[in-house]
């Protein structure tokens, strides 16, 4: 139970961070995937240390910015 509360709290925190990066990555009301991709790796490293896995992280990014989800270059290797 305590772990679930911790994880929920971290997911909320990282959603806020992803949203902030999204806002910073919009220039003249246009999303810059390049800017976003340059910054998302740092957030992912912190999330990973806090126990989130890649699937959790991808889900929270998709929840935060579904319209640009397909433009993201994930900071980990793709499975073959």
Brief write-up:
The protein has 80 residues and is mostly helical. The protein has helices at residues 2-24, 33-49, 54-64; strands at 26-27, 30-31.
Overall pLDDT: 90
| Percent strand | 5-15%
Distance between the termini: 35 Å
Radius of gyration: 13 Å
Describe the secondary structure blueprint for this structure.
Layout: H1 2-24, E1 26-27, E2 30-31, H2 33-49, H3 54-64
Antiparallel strand pairs: 1-2
Descriptive overview:
With 80 residues, the protein is mainly α. 64% of the residues lie in helices and 5% in strands. The chain has helices at residues 2-24, 33-49, 54-64; strands spanning 26-27, 30-31. The chain has a two-stranded antiparallel sheet. α1 (2-24) runs antiparallel to α2 and α1 packs across α3 (54-64). The longest helix has 23 residues, at 2-24. The chain is elongated, with a radius of gyration of 13 Å. The mean pLDDT is 90.
């Amino acid at each position: 139970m305590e772990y679930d509360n911790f994880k929920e709290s971290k997911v909320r925190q990282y959603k806020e961070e992803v949203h902030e990066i999204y806002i910073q990555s919009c220039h003249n009301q246009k999303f810059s995937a390049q800017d976003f991709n340059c910054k998302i790796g740092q957030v992912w490293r912190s999330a990973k240390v806090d126990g989130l896995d890649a699937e959790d992280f991808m889900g929270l990014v998709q929840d935060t910015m579904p319209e640009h989800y397909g433009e993201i270059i994930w900071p980990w290797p793709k499975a073959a």
